[in-house]
Automatic annotation (TrEMBL):
CDD domains: PTH. This is Peptidyl-tRNA hydrolase. The gene is pth. It catalyses: an N-acyl-L-alpha-aminoacyl-tRNA + H2O = an N-acyl-L-amino acid + a tRNA + H(+). Belongs to the PTH family. The lineage of its organism: Bacteria, Bacillati, Actinomycetota, Actinomycetes, Micrococcales.
Amino acid sequence: MDPWLIVGLGNPGTSYAGNRHNVGAMVAELLADRAEATLKAHKARARGAQIRLGTAGGGLPGPSAVVAVPSTYMNESGGPVAALMSFFKIPPERLIVVHDELDIDFGAVRLKRGGGEGGHNGLRSITKSLGTKDYLRVRVGIGRPPGRMDAASYVLKDFNATERKELDFLLPSAVDAIDLLVQKDLPDAQNVVHAW
């Protein structure tokens, strides 16, 4: 069985670490932590780790996966993702991209396969590099910017104090959603996650 590739999107460096745009990378870090793994530099211009996801029947280790965060800026995410898929021989149908989503209320997690990029430069770069939109997405809601704030400015701001407290619930929910996505098929996982 092919492994899964789970990619959390974000921008590199400490100045971006707390940004709303980096919530995908935050989820990937937590997923690695849960698996007691450390993301290490990979030649594909990413930090990654090979892990097992959850537990299979009879208490056996769950499916194998590579969890990764590109080391490039968001708008260049496609190169590292394509390189990881090539290196680990992972087909597009076993790629899960975790990213921030303006069109979903803060705190909600939604699952889908394919569709548009909604102006998200990381998704646009991945779609261009892979030549397909047909990959799974874990969309982590960050809500719309207040008032007339520009969306690009909003995503590059840190979560506010109230949101930071909620991240303690949001990030684990997104990790749980990934587990469900690999253990069940997409419609079954959506039925559970979209009801949270």
